[in-house]
From TrEMBL:
GO terms for biological process: response to oxidative stress. One of its GO terms (cellular component) is extracellular space. This is Animal heme peroxidase. The keyword Lyase does not apply. It comes from the Eukaryota. It holds the Pfam family An_peroxidase. Keywords: Oxidoreductase, Peroxidase.
């Protein structure tokens, strides 16, 4: 922080209708949720077909010891 006493920061955009008339200010969350499903669905079109049924698109299931 070399010779600085303050950090400049900016706030996220407020949610409409907040921050006025006694309503606490709420920030808009600009982060997005991203789930990496490549372990389940594959990371390529070729892998996708190995893991999913062609007719229904459902995930393929294998029996193990005669159980699902």
């Amino acid at each position: 922080f070399k010779q600085r006493q303050c950090l400049k920061v900016s706030r996220s955009a407020p949610i409409c209708g907040t921050g006025r008339n006694g309503v606490p200010r709420e920030q808009l969350n600009e982060n997005t949720a991203f789930i990496d499903g490549s372990a389940l669905y594959g990371s390529s079109f070729k892998d996708l077909h190995k893991f999913r049924q062609a007719r229904t698109g459902f995930l393929r299931m294998n029996k193990f010891n005669n159980q699902m």
